[in-house]
Amino acid sequence: ALERRFHPIMVDEPSVEETISILNGVRDRYETYHHVKILPEAVEAAAYLSDRYISDRRLPDKALDLLDEASAAIRLENLSIPKELKKLSAEINDEEQRIDGLISEGNIPQAEQRREEKNKLQDKYEKAKALSQKKHAEKVPLVGKEDIARIVSEWTKVPVQSLTKTDSDKLMNLEALMVRRIIGQDEAVAAVAQAMRRGGVRIQNPSRPIGSFLFLGPTGVGKTELSKVLADIMFEKETSFIRLDMSEYMEPHSVSKMTGSPPGYVGYDEGGQLSELVRRNPYSVVLLDEIEKAHPDVLNVLLQILDDGHLTDAKGRKVNFKNTVLIMTSNVGSKRIAEPKIIGFDRGGRREKYEQMKSSVMEEVRHTFKPEFINRIDDIIVFNALNEKDMKQIITLLTEELAERCLQQFGVRLSVGAAVKEYLVTKYSDLKMGARPLKRAVQFEIENALAQEFLSKHIASGSKIFVTMKNGKPKFSVRTPD
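RE: above sequence
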């Protein structure tokens, strides 16, 4: 009976255009309160940027808060105390301390003289303060779109502001930066770099992740390493690299591990592993390792991320994936990639062999994954099997990284001879296992000996360590500083 006497009115979220009209209607109130001038570009930026990057709140509320906080920040920046006022305030405090000292000593006449000096300084301070306030009143600070973008960046941890020259240089030279650390995978590096450039200038589809890739290849060829290198170069934070081992998601109920447990179940308050990590670090590289081991229900969850750029967790919150790079790795077709008659030990005609190998691998991919999953991925990249030339470059890279760590941590210069590198490649390289045996080789043959020397304190800072071959084994020699 009570319900019949009321008429329900559904209030929908306004569009971006309607939000701009609302903001223009209240803009003068914010300008009066904060004593700033809000430019029209700031109003539009507040509506557009809040709609794109702040997914857990609604318009116009989030846009109004952006305007409010940006205006307050600009106002506070312009309220800094001038140096002259700070100096006068310090002199007044000094005089007060002198007066208190004279009074405690009983020297009242001298204290009265100092009080007159203090009053003169106080008058001078008040005049300077009034002049400073008048200047501030005449000069009204402006709130622009960059100020709005800065607040959005603080809220979401996404670098929304215009790209700096450093960021632009990184994007332009991304291939060169990545090739230094990723050996023998030029096709993969080029595809990832193109996706990052699209995301950097914001011309990709705004409703999808910056890039989504399926990396295929044998173990140890650089699939995971490329993901780490990308996160290190572009995002420069450890928290910006999110890795999930999909072998932990082989059961149907493991979907709840990604999005969170349903209400009433253990772990509901903790949230999902994937959803929580991305919600806290929305600008990141997400690596889903060995995707073929995940249950089909888990892959169905990924369809929503690949298509709509968001994931709804168990609490009903939309987690924004539009500023992530989603990388999935798989060993599907790795036998065909490593097959000598396809990729060969020889580099001759490599491009033609690569295309033949990729076509062969794609047949196996189509048998493993559903078409709707494959069609939503931006690019499927097949990694080359490594050859002996690649192994030599990788061992050089590993020894250079070790030398850099020795210099930074102990102040010691390390030099590994070419014969030692050749020895490590010949003894430990396994084309079927990729580069991982070489990492163990460096640990076993060089790092173990170095650790023992550093612990015994036989090597002083500024020394030089030379690793050479003698009697078929690596030999260490130390040259101490003069």
